[in-house]
Amino acid sequence: MDKVLLLYSGGLDTSVMVKWIQKEMNKEVVTLTLNIGNSNLEEIKEKAISLGVSDAIVMDVKNEFADNYIKKEIFADGMYEGYPLSTAIARPLMAEKAVYYAREYGCDTIAHGSTGKGNDQVRFEVTVKAIDENINVIAPVRDWNMNRPDEISYARKNGIKIPKDGKYSVDENIWGRSAEGSTIENIANPLEDDVYEWVSPPEETGNGETVDIEFQNGIPHAINGIEYSLEEIVEKMNIIAGRNGIGLINHMEDRVTGIKSHEVYEVPGAMAILHAHKMIESLTLNKYEIDLKEYMDSQWSNFTYNGLWHDPVMEHINNFEYSLNKYVNGKIKFKLYKGNMILKSIESDNSIYNYEKISYDNSNFNQDSARGFIDIYKNNTVYTNNARKQKIDVIQ
Predict the structure, then answer these.
(1) ∠ at Cα 257 (148, 69), nearest 5°?
(2) Which pLDDT score is estimated for 160?
């Protein structure tokens, strides 16, 4: 009998898929569950086994996620339309593991739980096909046009325990939490308080706190003088920044599929780390490096969001980002206060900032040389205007 590897969350959608694939497609099912956030792996494994799967694979991959995916996003100051990419960078990892275990367990098909409206179907399937074009990919919710009432009815007929789902559709990993659906879809109304889980509303935070973050080769390695792994730093900054109201993003988003969606992201650790990283960059990289990096950062974010993690161009972009982050070293101190990150101090052995040159308290700069610089600098604009006899309107 042919086998299907199913990316399994333990929820209603993927639990129904197990039985559907077994009964309607007459195929064995192997489930794969990856803990990238706070999944209860043993509970999910037991549920998969109770549904009659031939194998139930569970793995904690948080450390791998931090070291191979979050790290690259920090290098690239990864933002899409103003928010850190969290769900988008988890999908390539999940797809890669799915291909590996599909081969390991002799599965000719990979199944995932995405709908036909969202981005994840693109991310999963493009990644799988980029790695192994011969593996078949199905998305039962999309391909078989499943809807919620039909799934509940099917679950009851087949003895599948129906989980008590939350109010919102939530995706979560250590880098961020996204929420959509329910009242979030009514954009005429403000967010309800129950959307907050990781981030305290600013009006409910205290007097703030100061935090030091140290970077080495572009990656945070210490908080308040204590060294941690990147996974630990992300998890600790989620708590510290979150309790100070940092990282809730109420966002109107442009999906790959060409439709707009109203999304809410809680990314306290990601926002704090990326903001600190960009500040260290501003101290250690020159104007031309920063200008070019901002362009490459935007390309990195767009390719990642659009499911093109394995496009060959990403290797070149990642190599560029890595080359500049060798100089992004230093320590930065912030006051976190009611959703704000207030810079207190910043220092780096790679600093390009020259106090002797910039200070107005000394004369260690030949100001008269600016006259000659301006005389040359003006030429392009002045000569062009003269040649074209361009009239410049002066406001009276």
Answers:
(1) 90
(2) 87
> Of the residues 9, 15, 86, 91, which is catalytic?
91
Question: Which of the four pLDDT bands, split at 50, 70 and 90, describes residue 162?
Answer: confident
Distance of CA 146 to the CA centre of its chain: 28
Q: Which of 39, 77, 86, 120 is catalytic?
A: 120
pLDDT tens-digit readout, 290-328: 999 999 999 999 999 999 999 999 999 999 999 999 999
**Residue 235 in this model has a pLDDT that exceeds 80:** yes
Q: Establish whether 91 is a catalytic residue.
A: yes
Residue 120 annotated among the catalytic residues of the structure: yes
Q: What tens digit of pLDDT does each residue of 97-139 get? A: 999 999 999 999 999 988 888 899 999 999 999 999 999 999 9
Give alpha helix (H) positions in 189-309. Answer: 230-242, 268-284, 287-305
Instruction: Say which of 54, 55, 108, 169 is annotated catalytic.
Output: 169
User: How are beta strands 176-180 and 169-173 bridged, if at all?
Assistant: antiparallel
Parallel/antiparallel/unpaired status of strands 330-337 and 260-266: unpaired
Per-residue model confidence as pLDDT tens digits over 59-79: 999 999 999 999 999 999 999
Residues whose CB falls within 8 Å of the CB of residue 309, separated by 6 or more in sequence, listed in order:
89, 91, 92, 123, 127, 303
Three-state secondary-structure class, residue 214: strand
Q: Which residues contact 257 (CB under 8 A, 6 or more apart)?
A: 116, 117, 118, 119, 122
Write down the catalytic residue from 13, 77, 171, 297: 13
Minimal CA–CA distance to 284: which of 212, 334, 348, 219?
348
Residue 103 known to be catalytic: no
The DSSP-derived string for 47-107 is: HHHHTT-SEEEEEE-HHHHIIIIIHHHHHTT-EETTEE-SHHHHHHHHHHHHHHHHHHTT-
**Which is nearest to 196 in space by CA: 188, 205, 187?**
205
232, 63 contact by CB (below 8 A): no
Kindly give the pairing relationship between strand 169-173 and strand 136-138. unpaired
231 in Cβ contact with 215 (< 8 Å): no
CB burial class (10 A; 0-12, 13-18, 19+) of residue 371? exposed
**Is 13 assigned a catalytic role?**
yes
Bridge partners (DSSP) listed for residue 29: 4
